[in-house]
Amino acid sequence: MNIGIDMMGGDFAPLEAVKGLHLYLENNVHAPAAFFCIGQEDKVLPLLQEYGLDKHPAIRFIPAPEVIGYHEHPTKALKEKQQSSIAIGFHLLATGKTDAFISAGNTGAMLVGTLYSIKALPGIQRPTIATLVPKLDGSNGILLDVGLNTDCKPENLNQFAVLGSLYASNILGVSNPAVALLNVGEEEGKGNLLAQAAYPLLKENADINFTGNVEGRDVFTGKADVIVCDGFTGNVILKMAESIYDIARQRNLHNDDYLHRFHYENYGGTPVLGVAKPVIIGHGISNGKAFQNMLKLAIKMIESDLCGQIKEKYKD
Amino acid sequence: MNIGIDMMGGDFAPLEAVKGLHLYLENNVHAPAAFFCIGQEDKVLPLLQEYGLDKHPAIRFIPAPEVIGYHEHPTKALKEKQQSSIAIGFHLLATGKTDAFISAGNTGAMLVGTLYSIKALPGIQRPTIATLVPKLDGSNGILLDVGLNTDCKPENLNQFAVLGSLYASNILGVSNPAVALLNVGEEEGKGNLLAQAAYPLLKENADINFTGNVEGRDVFTGKADVIVCDGFTGNVILKMAESIYDIARQRNLHNDDYLHRFHYENYGGTPVLGVAKPVIIGHGISNGKAFQNMLKLAIKMIESDLCGQIKEKYKD
């Protein structure tokens, strides 16, 4: 398998991407994948050399003279900078030269690139992005959507539930994952119009193990393996969860085993679900460990053929 | 001033309400208020005696033979149990015998009672409930709506901003409070349809100091004194914030000065804003300290004439 990596994405590019590759290859001597490192030659090659990766059999350098900055308009930048690492990354993925694409660069450009060049799978109304939530019992849950779909219809939430279930069973290794609807109360009938209408769809969905509503207090307690919500609420939760680690650090509590798990580097990246191939979008501040975790996630997504399984589920 | 207290509300009723009164009167020898203690004679009087409050000049016992339980249907229970502590509490408030009403009982019954017997002030589209959010700088912000209005219109959010501002300046003592819209990004134009439509209303509202959008990560950092959002998102945040204290306790980190501030007892109760008189709804697990804080809040709301100020603002 071949994994494309945008070496120019992230606040510390390309250094942290190189560090991530180095970490990964140090821990996995027989790497199951080849890594296509896409970026500016004068910036990336010296670092690959410095880390002894320039002649590594698993590494292949792909020159990309342009870079899409953080504040550029996604659609405009992708159109005008066809020689950028993100545009080339999507070209390689769309043409089958790579099997997954990873970037910690401009999130908007990554989403636009995913939706326009990789595209939603047939039957998928709305691709979605998800985040892991650290549960007190030591395992992880998944929350979706976390921002791609700020306004949702009930059937979108119902589909997120299936995508999240497949992710939880294939990537997190949870068998028969418990799926819950985020809501303001536990009883059926509670909620805003969206949640009230989504509940019966989820209840009747034979493809998932729906366990009912969960409230804000249950997000971290482990009541559910998959929690579905609209992307507005999910994005607020995602960012609140990230701030928990920042608060812990400020209060000097970040070495607590549980609070430490809120550190973004442990998740590495946000997978886009419901599209034809694995795309993982990293945090702008991604460090080497985060990149390593994105590489691991990409490999897991390819090995489990998560996209193929989603495709199979919606083929009719 | 006279404050009505539902002695029968809360998981530990009437003991914790009595403890709260005892705490308050111990710390405020010259209480500025008289307390109307509403509840079942055989349960409340012996406890008032035990705590030496039965002959206290600030205490007046009001018998209420019935109790509305936690799981009773609010409207039905209020209608059928007119001799309940909640029904009598609202009767006293509506007829001017008391100036505020406090209960840690059935939240639904408290809300129904507030809306039907105290009523929204003229010009108020939707009364709202708010919660305090502990900010890292030591001060508190206010977040609203936290669950009374799970589906909102842009103009509702605009009005919550005014109610929240008046609360922050009158009750929290913040001058010219910074008001923010909870959103998925900082730039104008971000958000779901509701947030996109609310932004320009807030921007043009001369009654508030609108400072733009804040994201989930900013809720606790102190970027804003007043954060407005729909009641679905706000309720999820409220309950997540409550769970932060529970997590801290489980991890034995609850003695941290900041994390300790997430303990519900420090806030005591949720004020209903936009109605004609102060109503404060307490957490079901309210302890003595929580009741004491509800009493303090009721007195502050009466002394500052917050309801009168809101009425004045919307009189045209």
UniProtKB/TrEMBL annotation, chains A, B:
Give start-end of the signal peptide.
none
Provide the assembly information: Homodimer. Probably interacts with PlsY.
Recorded name of the encoding gene: plsX
Entry keyword set: Acyltransferase, Cytoplasm, Lipid biosynthesis, Lipid metabolism, Phospholipid biosynthesis, Phospholipid metabolism, Transferase
Official protein name in the record: Phosphate acyltransferase
List its EC numbers.
2.3.1.274
Pfam families reported in the protein's UniProt record: FA_synthesis (PF02504)
Where is it mostly found? cytoplasm
The record's section on InterPro entries has: FA_synthesis, Phospholipid_synth_PlsX-like
Looking at the record's lineage, which domain of life comes first? Bacteria
Described by its record, this protein's role is as follows:
Catalyzes the reversible formation of acyl-phosphate (acyl-PO(4)) from acyl-[acyl-carrier-protein] (acyl-ACP). This enzyme utilizes acyl-ACP as fatty acyl donor, but not acyl-CoA.
Q: In which pathway does it act?
A: Lipid metabolism; phospholipid metabolism
Q: Name one GO molecular function term.
A: phosphate:acyl-[acyl carrier protein] acyltransferase activity
The places in or outside the cell where this protein is found are: Cytoplasm
Catalysed transformations (reactions)? a fatty acyl-[ACP] + phosphate = an acyl phosphate + holo-[ACP]
Query: What family, per the record?
Result: Belongs to the PlsX family.
Enumerate the Gene Ontology biological process terms.
fatty acid biosynthetic process; phospholipid biosynthetic process
Q: Which GO terms describe its cellular component?
A: cytoplasm
